Predict the 3D structure of the following.
Amino acid sequence: MKEKAGKVMSNVDDAIQVQLAMANIYRTIGERHSDQGEYQKAVDYYMKELEFQERILGKEHIEVDLTCIRIAGEYIKMQEEEQAVEFLYHHAGIKNHF
């Protein structure tokens, strides 16, 4: 029984690692779009990264905050400062940090 439980936990850990790797892939693709000036596409990929992170790490994890900051940065590059502030306020919980 103990061996079976260990195998299940190992499979869960593997699944989590795969999902975190997917989040990192989305971040890398987003970074490439940002580097090419395709800011909306970067936002789209960062949002996919964020979905994985929130599901796996939880909304309070520092990696989630960093992704939210990246997304806000893309909005600023598109001269959508209000959208950046609104995004941080609602998604990153910036109101709780002050």
